[in-house]
Amino acid sequence: MPRRRPYAVAMRTPKTLLIVYHSMTGGTRQMAEAACAAAQAADPAVAVRLLHASEAGAADMLAADGYLFATPENLAAISGQLKDFFDRSYYGVLDQVNGRPYALLVCAGSDGQNAARQMARIATGWRLKAIAEPLIVCTHAQTPEAILAPKQIGADDLARCQALGEALAVGLGMGVF
């Protein structure tokens, strides 16, 4: 009788989700942390790295399979520290991350659309693939005191951030992206 071969067990290639954020008043940090926690819980086989923009660079981008970029809206633009991360990393990863998935988080005082557009343009230059519309949380901070005050993101908005983090991790883990 011929010897039977055991069934091959499909091994998933470990994936990494990189979350790069900057936060001055805590709002964006809360959003990024909520997405991170949900991503970690969603698929333990996906490594999730949460890095402040000042600590992240091109090597971190190259080592990751998907990205979540999070910024406050500062003067209708992305934060200077997140912009610095993009400036330091851009040419070091150009044409090496094409097609990888990404999503965006913006903690805005008004509408956040310009900050989202700026990040999307950078992602387009890197030829990344958006997996969701930018998630913008509006704090309605319009006075100098309100803008500079520590932020507390509401449970509903944090749940939206969690859902986005979960979707990124599950999609990476399943090989959907």
Would you mind describing this structure in some detail?
By secondary structure, the protein is α/β, with parallel strands linked by helices. The protein has a single domain (15-174), classed as 3-Layer(aba) Sandwich (Rossmann fold), CATH 3.40.50.360. It is built from six helices and six strands. It has helices spanning 27-42, 58-62, 80-93, 113-125, 144-148, 155-174, and strands at residues 15-21, 46-52, 66-72, 101-108, 129-130, 135-138. Strands 1, 2, 3, 4, 5 and 6 form a six-stranded parallel beta sheet that branches. α1 links the parallel β1 (15-21) and β2 (46-52). α1 (27-42) crosses α6. The longest helix has 20 residues, at 155-174. The termini are far apart. The mean pLDDT is 94.
Structure class = alpha/beta
Q: What fold name stands as the CATH topology?
A: Rossmann fold
Q: Please state the overall shape, judged from the principal axes of the Cα atoms.
A: globular
Uncertain segments are none
In whole angstroms, the N-to-C terminal distance is 44 Å
- The ordered string of helix (H) and strand (E) elements is EHEHEHEHEEHH
- The tally of domains stands at 1
- Proportion of strand residues: 15-25%
Mean pLDDT metric: 94
Number of beta strands = 6
Q: Could you tell me the radius of gyration in angstroms?
A: 18 Å
Fraction of residues in H or I helices: 40-55%
Q: How many helix segments?
A: 6
The CATH superfamily is known as Flavodoxin domain
Q: Architecture, according to CATH? A: 3-Layer(aba) Sandwich
At the first level of CATH, the class is Alpha Beta
Largest sheet: 6 strands, parallel
